[in-house]
């Protein structure tokens, strides 16, 4: 059953066996595990069916750290969460990602890959990619996958699969039909009410922007509202616990990580397709295609003391002929653009507009007609591009190849999410994100530029030039941005001295409060996090089944 606070009055009090805050991939995965059972589930979502500017405004905050980061432009408050803008990329973390490394302070998960593998397999079915075989930190390479001539003992290929599943669309109807599930929309969690010693949650306070208030009473609570918002809600819940719930050791919000991305340098070559075509994602066949990533090997990380990372070579086109521009416009007019995989997987996802409106993607008949006319006036442009593609070249000759890196971030207690003094529309303190990189991060970028640049230059008989900014750690304008993979703010640990949640994702010291999502990741590897988020959520759901 769906109850929308913007459409009808909500009960002033709701009782459930389990309350899940956040209806993104983590929350939906957990809720689905109780569909059509006797367990009463309440799934609380602050937005509606699609992103809306008013709901999105509750994500507003400020950034005071390094790099380019905007708290509002990288999150989606709606049913399905950030799958509204994600690229579908699924890849597991590997044993090396989960292990402790002497050169990476605060590294190491209290779990091994083999403990997660059964839940990765379950997650594969949820994402519609179960026909792809799992490997340690990768999917098994599909037959016929061409990887070009890149050979280097410090590099390796790992494969990700692109899921066709978008959670808010695919699972909405079954959540609505389940008699034991209440899905609240436009219902914003504002604080958790704890008992006198803060060891047990008694209720969750919920408010709508339309003025409704609900007290939600459950046996168990799960925070599944994202890597920033999970920490924010714990910090806001300070009526009984000064500094917030689970924060006796001042760890909530610390160790904030993203996957920093930056251009490492440029490649000049007469054969750019040798290094770009193997990583082209536009030619994926089937409903869940598999693609390779060029990554640092475990040997490279150990030899040079590096974080994990990968690169994507982007061909930067020269002048695009008018006929080709018109053809691309025509293709866009008839293509579903809600989920732009290339943008979401490789671009700075933080630039995705938070108030996305489907009507903005519509193309007028006039624009289509103009594009068709332009193509008709320049048939030679299209013919030349088709010939270039036929002989194995890029349709438009590139000026250069940009080598863009995507990296693991070093866990750093000084990189954090905290509460500021400004208030949102519900009277709640907004977040301040202090995103900080370390010398290890910069050492990784510089060394990776040399390793990747050398390999790509050799493979294409070209010349690689490292970007100048990499030589100056003090530059305030370093072109480093996040990729909207918010991790670490409620990190998992065996001891409450080192993290916020235990091995079962339960907040240390709070009996009935759990956390789902990438905020529990102690480290992040370079892998797109959603696949691991869902696997970990299914693991948590299994544990909760034993408690209910």
Mean pLDDT: 87
CATH superfamily of the largest domain: FAD/NAD(P)-binding domain
CATH topology of the largest domain, which one?
A: FAD/NAD(P)-binding domain
Domain module count: 3
In words, what does this structure look like?
This protein is of the alpha/beta class and 548 residues long. It has three domains: 1-128 and 166-257 and 413-435 and 487-548, FAD/NAD(P)-binding domain, CATH 3.50.50; 131-162 and 261-318 and 397-408 and 438-479, no CATH class; 323-391, no CATH class. Helix content is 26%, strand content 22%. The protein has 15 helices and 20 strands. The protein has helices at residues 25-32, 53-56, 95-98, 113-126, 167-170, 172-177, 229-236, 273-276, 298-304, 322-333, 341-346, 365-377, 379-390, 439-460, 530-547, and strands spanning 2-4, 13-21, 41-44, 61-63, 89-90, 134-135, 138-139, 155-162, 181-185, 188-194, 201-207, 213-223, 261-268, 290-296, 309-317, 398-407, 416-423, 429-434, 463-466, 513-515. Strands 1, 2, 3, 9, 10, 11, 12 and 20 form an eight-stranded mixed sheet that branches. It has a seven-stranded antiparallel sheet with strand order 5-8-14-15-16-13-19. A hairpin with a 5-residue loop joins β17 and β18 (429-434). The longest helix has 22 residues, at 439-460. It is globular. Residues 336-363 have low confidence and may be disordered.
């Amino acid at each position: 059953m769906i109850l929308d606070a913007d459409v009808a009055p909500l009960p002033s009090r709701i009782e459930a066996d389990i309350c899940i805050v956040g209806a993104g991939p983590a929350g939906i995965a957990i809720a689905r595990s109780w569909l059509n059972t006797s367990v009463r589930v309440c799934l609380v979502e602050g937005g509606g069916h699609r992103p809306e500017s008013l709901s999105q405004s509750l994500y507003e905050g400020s950034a005071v750290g390094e790099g380019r980061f905007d708290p509002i432009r990288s999150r989606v408050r709606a049913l399905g969460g950030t799958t509204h803008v994600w690229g579908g990329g699924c890849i597991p973390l590997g044993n090396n990602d989960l292990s402790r490394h002497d050169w990476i302070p605060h590294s190491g998960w209290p779990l091994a890959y083999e403990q997660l593998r059964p839940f990765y397999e379950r997650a594969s079915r949820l994402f519609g990619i179960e026909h792809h075989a799992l490997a340690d930190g990768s999917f098994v390479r599909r037959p016929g996958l061409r990887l070009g001539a890149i050979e280097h003992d410090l590099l390796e290929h790992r494969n990700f699969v692109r899921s066709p599943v978008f959670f808010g669309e695919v699972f909405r109807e079954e959540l609505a039909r389940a008699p034991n599930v209440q899905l609240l929309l436009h219902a914003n969690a504002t604080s958790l009410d704890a008992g006198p010693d803060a060891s047990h949650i008694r209720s969750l306070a919920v408010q709508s922007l339309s003025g409704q208030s609900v007290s939600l009473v459950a046996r168990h609570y799960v925070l599944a509202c994202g890597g920033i918002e999970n920490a924010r809600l714990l910090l806001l819940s300070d009526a009984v616990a000064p500094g917030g719930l689970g924060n006796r050791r001042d760890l909530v919000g610390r160790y904030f990580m993203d996957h920093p991305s930056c251009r490492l340098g440029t490649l000049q070559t007469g054969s750019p397709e040798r290094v770009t075509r193997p990583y082209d994602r536009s030619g994926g066949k089937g409903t869940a295609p598999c693609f390779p990533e060029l990554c640092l090997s475990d040997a490279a990380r150990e030899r040079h003391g590096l974080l994990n990372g990968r690169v994507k070579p982007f061909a930067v086109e020269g002048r695009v002929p008018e006929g080709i521009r018109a053809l691309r416009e025509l293709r866009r007019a008839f293509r579903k653009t809600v989920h732009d995989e290339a943008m979401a997987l490789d671009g700075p996802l933080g630039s995705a507009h938070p108030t996305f409106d489907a009507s903005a993607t519509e193309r007028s008949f006039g624009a289509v007609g103009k594009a068709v006319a332009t193509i008709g006036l320049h048939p030679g442009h299209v013919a030349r591009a088709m010939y270039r593609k036929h002989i194995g070249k890029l349709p438009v000759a590139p000026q250069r190849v940009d080598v863009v890196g995507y990296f693991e971030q070093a866990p750093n207690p000084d990189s954090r999410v905290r509460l500021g003094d400004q208030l949102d529309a519900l009277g709640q303190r907004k977040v301040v994100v202090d995103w900080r990189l370390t010398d290890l991060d910069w050492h990784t970028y510089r060394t990776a530029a040399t390793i990747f640049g050398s390999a790509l230059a050799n493979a294409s008989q070209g010349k690689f030039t490292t970007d100048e900014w990499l030589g100056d750690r003090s530059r305030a304008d370093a072109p480093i941005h996040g990729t909207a993979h918010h991790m670490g703010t409620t990190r998992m640990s065996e001891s409450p001295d080192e993290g916020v949640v235990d091995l079962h994702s339960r907040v240390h010291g709070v009996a009935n409060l759990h956390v789902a999502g990438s905020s529990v990741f102690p480290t992040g590897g370079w892998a797109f996090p959603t696949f691991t988020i869902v696997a970990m959520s299914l693991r948590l759901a299994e544990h909760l089944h034993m408690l209910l």
